[in-house]
């Protein structure tokens, strides 16, 4: 099936090799003191004696590359100059800290930093079929989203693993990572588009020699999520130490955590799932809250094996054997038995308690399964002592799998009373209309399985070093990168609703046999099915409903980058040398998507009907024939041409008096082929005050994020939503939700300001480092799309310009749709501060070795999103624990290390929060509930504290064994209520796995 979409592998390789050219090393010094990076941490000579705390950089390679000197490459700046200190705060995670965390994926370690909020990984997006982000590991700084965080590998861009442009950290060569720099501030003037929230830069060891490896296994306390990690790297020098070759390979398997079942049956004995739901009373002005927080919510439109949900027979349910019984509504609800399908004594769409067996929320995968394969190679040749040419290749594959909600729930079916599968006792009581409303969870259907596979081919070639010109040494790097990412998403056990509706509409033919009523469907292979109970389907009936070849999408995404950078000291003044960095970059991004004809529609060529997807006259040739996973064909491309200039100007040089100070300036002009030219800039400075070790820093910048390929040229995706709330009559309807692109988008612009103070290893306490940094970010022209429910709700409330984007009045749900499209309509403003502190003590209490304590904290003061629509008010999501920005979040570590062993303790915590800041909490005498200030009876979510412990025993210099236990006290997640019976947890904040044990062996020769 895949061969008709995928390009031949050899053709892709030939293209990549022909296009490959030059590439840089932005990190001239692989090891640097934390203070020089503006991260707080112990001195380098102390840090090498103990496992590193977060922010500590470890010198794992004393040998420097050609051209390297004492100059430091600061990720927050392009300036390379001795003694230069960038004004932008940067946290550094060293190799020792990465090892101490003992994660199967380095992404998990970095994502724990308090400044990273809203990152996506294997526990997010698991209820999705069509998003394409399942199993995709990408970072989000400041809660601004993965698309506003620029992730680099050795200072270079990486081809996106999704059409949003974000790379997948799972595809990086993780064993060779020396450190990770996290720049918590705008860096567009230095690095270009997307660096609004900041930059995460992975620095590899480019001079590794020898052989090293790591073998690790893990399992959760519930006996699931088994993991295996195998890593190996080798490096050797040839030709009198001028030719350097490094290769690495790794395999990682994470079994994931499968789904529970129906009702509240969480997987593997977990007992925390309670179907927490925010239910709507539908009354806004009676002095009581409109919304109530309730656990054990029951969706009363459908049940596990079927429920008549309106008319005279409402409340008649069916058991597994197909026998009717009176359904047990929660809340002592009584069905109204009219056409509305309401239940007296219950909420809109929900009762509380009763028979919960039909709920489908916990039937979603909790953690995607993941397999990743990574191969990496680097060859470098020293032309002389100062200059190197090199090439790298990175080929990787990441396979994941997940299950969205089980079955394929239907809540608004219309059944005929003459259906031969209907028990006679029920058909005898049928209404005069001869039909009745029906809902069923479809537990008789196999569950959907989604399997994305991402393959990356990345080739870089370049040169770096230094040359003398105008009496000064000038550093340079130049590179060309070609990257390709091939993503195939295969979905199995997917229902075709048009066939389902014909299969459930059964009748008897002239011979008395039960057949599908529609003769066209019968001719196409329709087999009647019985949905009154749990009768298993025949293989023929199942093949008709869920074809073996399900939804399929093939995406080819390419990135080509040519970049050249120069830096050095232009001339000197009385205060010191003026340093300059300048460069230019060209980048081209392209993607093309092909999809199966059932979802995409009938076009020509590869998307036409074929042997894998035969024609069926009952299909809609416009596509959208699947229950979910209606992928669409599309393509798009844009080019970027930009140049920048950065200056460091010393303005004060009086170490024994007023101190030293510098001003850092940068500007960049960027031309996008889709939206024209934009300008970004940065102005900052640092002052080393006369106070011992005390530095002040400040920076303000204009940053930019251009619309990505998905936002501009998104291949339309249709998702069937069976239980969508129609606010015009408070009814539940079935819709097709269509996601489309917008080629008229313009770049977002941001203003980012940071003010900070650093106390770095004062003479009176040389083991101490502290920092405090305030930040304020405002983004205009934010590219955003309202959710389908938001869009319809705002129309109902008077925002008429949105009313043309949907239709909800089709009979039986036929033709209902909501179009979701991005616009430059919103703004985001956030402010807060970061605190970092560390202290290292040698020979604590007279014991050998060292003891290191470190803490990092982020406080989000506000995070305000303004949709920019009439009759809407800004929403502050700071402290909203259903999202990604808790009010407080911190990470603390304590490490004791000596020659034979080390012990590592870690604490992760975030503060209590609320469901939403828009709610007005009240029990009685409530004000009138409105869309901007809805009333609710409860609005609190507990925070969480997690305690991790690990340790290492060194058998010899090159051989050690280690262990790690995450979430030692097995802290359960706090319910994160939905407005439906979905998975009521928030994996962006809460640990949903539970206690996890890991152990392994490392070696290095």
TrEMBL record:
<protein>
    <submittedName>
        <fullName>TonB-dependent receptor</fullName>
    </submittedName>
</protein>
<feature type="compositionally biased region" description="Low complexity">
    <location>
        <begin position="42"/>
        <end position="56"/>
    </location>
</feature>
<dbReference type="InterPro" id="IPR012910">
    <property type="entry name" value="Plug_dom"/>
</dbReference>
<feature type="domain" description="TonB-dependent receptor plug">
    <location>
        <begin position="85"/>
        <end position="199"/>
    </location>
</feature>
<keyword id="KW-0732">Signal</keyword>
<comment type="similarity">
    <text>Belongs to the TonB-dependent receptor family.</text>
</comment>
<keyword id="KW-0812">Transmembrane</keyword>
<feature type="signal peptide">
    <location>
        <begin position="1"/>
        <end position="36"/>
    </location>
</feature>
<dbReference type="InterPro" id="IPR000531">
    <property type="entry name" value="Beta-barrel_TonB"/>
</dbReference>
<dbReference type="InterPro" id="IPR039426">
    <property type="entry name" value="TonB-dep_rcpt-like"/>
</dbReference>
<keyword id="KW-0675">Receptor</keyword>
<keyword id="KW-0813">Transport</keyword>
<feature type="region of interest" description="Disordered">
    <location>
        <begin position="42"/>
        <end position="70"/>
    </location>
</feature>
<keyword id="KW-0798">TonB box</keyword>
<dbReference type="InterPro" id="IPR037066">
    <property type="entry name" value="Plug_dom_sf"/>
</dbReference>
<keyword id="KW-1134">Transmembrane beta strand</keyword>
<keyword id="KW-0998">Cell outer membrane</keyword>
<feature type="domain" description="TonB-dependent receptor-like beta-barrel">
    <location>
        <begin position="556"/>
        <end position="968"/>
    </location>
</feature>
<dbReference type="Pfam" id="PF07715">
    <property type="entry name" value="Plug"/>
</dbReference>
<dbReference type="Pfam" id="PF00593">
    <property type="entry name" value="TonB_dep_Rec_b-barrel"/>
</dbReference>
<keyword id="KW-0472">Membrane</keyword>
<dbReference type="InterPro" id="IPR036942">
    <property type="entry name" value="Beta-barrel_TonB_sf"/>
</dbReference>
């Amino acid at each position: 099936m895949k061969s008709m979409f995928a390009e031949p592998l050899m053709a892709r390789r030939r293209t990549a090799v022909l296009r490959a050219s030059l590439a840089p090393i932005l990190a001239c010094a692989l090891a640097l003191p934390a203070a020089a990076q503006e991260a707080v941490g112990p001195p380098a000579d102390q840090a090498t004696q103990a496992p590193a705390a977060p922010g500590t950089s470890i010198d794992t390679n004393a040998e420097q590359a050609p051209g390297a000197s004492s100059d430091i490459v600061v990720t927050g700046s392009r300036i390379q100059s001795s003694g230069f200190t960038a004004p932008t705060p940067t946290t550094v995670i060293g190799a020792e800290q990465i090892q101490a965390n003992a994660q199967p994926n380095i992404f998990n370690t970095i994502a724990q930093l308090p400044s990273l909020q809203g990152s996506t990984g294997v526990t997010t997006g698991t209820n999705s079929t069509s998003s394409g982000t399942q199993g995709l590991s990408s970072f989000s700084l400041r809660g601004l989203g993965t698309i506003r965080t620029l992730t680099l590998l050795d200072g270079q861009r990486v081809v996106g693993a999704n059409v949003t442009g974000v790379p997948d950290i799972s595809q990086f060569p993780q064993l060779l990572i020396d450190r990770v720099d996290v720049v918590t501030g705008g860096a567009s003037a230095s690095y270009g588009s997307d660096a609004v929230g900041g930059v995460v830069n992975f620095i590899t060891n480019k001079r590794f020699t020898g052989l090293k490896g790591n073998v690790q296994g893990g399992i959760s306390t519930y006996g699931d999520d088994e993991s295996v990690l195998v890593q190996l790297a080798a490096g050797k020098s040839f030709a009198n130490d001028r030719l350097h070759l490094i290769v690495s390979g790794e395999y990682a398997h994470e079994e994931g955590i499968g789904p529970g079942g129906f009702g509240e049956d969480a997987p593997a004995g977990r007992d925390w799932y309670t179907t927490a739901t925010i239910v709507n009373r539908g009354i806004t002005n009676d002095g009581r809250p409109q919304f109530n927080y309730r656990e054990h919510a029951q969706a009363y439109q459908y049940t596990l094996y079927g429920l008549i949900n309106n008319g005279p027979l409402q409340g008649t349910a069916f058991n597994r054997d197909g026998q009717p019984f009176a359904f047990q509504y929660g809340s002592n609800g009584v069905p109204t038995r009219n056409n509305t399908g309401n239940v007296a004594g219950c909420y809109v769409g929900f009762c509380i308690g009763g028979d919960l067996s039909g709920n489908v929320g916990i039937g979603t995968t909790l953690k995607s399964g993941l397999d990743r394969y990574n191969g990496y190679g680097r060859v470098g040749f020293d032309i002389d002592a100062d200059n190197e040419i090199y090439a790298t290749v990175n080929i990787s594959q990441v396979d994941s799998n997940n299950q969205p909600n089980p079955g394929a729930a239907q809540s608004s079916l219309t059944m005929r009373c003459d259906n031969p599968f209907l028990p006679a006792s029920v058909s005898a009581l049928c209404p005069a209309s001869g039909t009745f409303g029906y809902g069923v969870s479809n537990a008789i259907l196999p569950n959907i399985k989604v399997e994305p596979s991402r393959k990356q081919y990345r080739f870089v070639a370049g040169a770096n070093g230094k040359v003398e010109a105008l009496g000064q040494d000038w550093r340079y790097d130049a590179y060309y990168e070609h990257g390709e990412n091939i993503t195939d998403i295969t979905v199995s056990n997917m229902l075709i609703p048009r066939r389902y509706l014909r299969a459930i509409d059964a009748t008897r033919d002239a011979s008395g046999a039960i057949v599908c009523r529609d003769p066209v469907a019968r001719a196409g292979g329709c087999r009647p099915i019985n949905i009154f109970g749990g009768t298993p389907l025949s293989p023929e009936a199942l093949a008709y409903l869920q074809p073996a070849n399900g939804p399929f999408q093939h995406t080819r995404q390419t990135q080509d980058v040519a970049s050249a950078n120069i830096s050095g000291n232009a001339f000197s003044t009385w205060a010191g040398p003026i340093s300059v960095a300048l460069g230019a970059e060209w980048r081209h991004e392209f993607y093309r998507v092909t999809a199966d004809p059932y979802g995409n529609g009938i076009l020509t060529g590869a998307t036409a009907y074929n042997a894998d997807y035969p024609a069926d006259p009952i299909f809609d040739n416009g596509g959208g024939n699947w229950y979910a996973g209606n992928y669409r064909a599309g393509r798009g491309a844009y080019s970027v041409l930009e140049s920048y200039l950065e200056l460091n100007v010393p303005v004060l040089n009086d170490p024994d008096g007023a101190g030293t100070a510098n001003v850092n300036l940068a500007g960049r002009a960027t031309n996008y082929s889709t939206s024209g030219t934009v300008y970004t800039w940065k102005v900052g400075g640092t002052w080393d005050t006369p106070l011992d070790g005390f530095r002040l820093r400040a920076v303000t910048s204009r940053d930019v994020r251009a619309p990505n390929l998905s936002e501009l040229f998104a291949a339309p995706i249709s998702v069937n939503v069976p239980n969508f709330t129609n606010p015009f009559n408070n009814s539940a309807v079935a819709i097709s939700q269509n996601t489309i692109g917008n080629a008229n988008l313009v770049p977002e612009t941001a203003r980012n300001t940071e003010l900070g103070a650093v106390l770095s290893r004062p003479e009176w306490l040389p083991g101490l480092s502290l920092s405090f940094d305030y930040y304020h970010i405002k983004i205009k022209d934010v590219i955003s799309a309202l959710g389908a429910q938001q869009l319809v709700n705002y129309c109902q409330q008077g925002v008429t310009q949105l009313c043309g984007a949907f239709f909800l009045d089709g009979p039986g749900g036929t033709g209902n749709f909501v179009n979701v499209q991005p616009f430059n309509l919103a703004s985001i403003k956030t402010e807060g501060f970061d605190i970092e502190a560390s202290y290292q003590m040698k020979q604590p209490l007279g014991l050998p070795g060292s003891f290191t304590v470190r803490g990092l904290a982020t406080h989000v003061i506000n995070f305000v999103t303004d949709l920019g629509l009439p009759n809407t008010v800004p929403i502050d999501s700071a402290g909203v624990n259903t999202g990604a920005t808790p009010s407080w979040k911190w990470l603390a570590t304590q490490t004791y290390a000596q020659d034979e062993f080390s012990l590592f303790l870690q604490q992760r915590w975030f503060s209590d929060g609320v469901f939403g800041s828009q709610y007005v909490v009240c029990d009685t005498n409530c004000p009138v509930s409105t869309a901007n200030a809805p009333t609710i009876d409860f609005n609190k979510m507990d925070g969480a504290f997690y305690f991790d412990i690990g340790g290492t025993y060194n058998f010899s210099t090159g051989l050690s064994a280690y262990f790690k236990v995450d979430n030692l006290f097995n802290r359960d997640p706090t319910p994160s209520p939905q407005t439906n019976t979905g998975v009521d947890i928030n994996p962006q904040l809460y640990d949903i796995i539970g206690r996890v044990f890991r152990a392994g062996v490392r070696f290095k020769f």
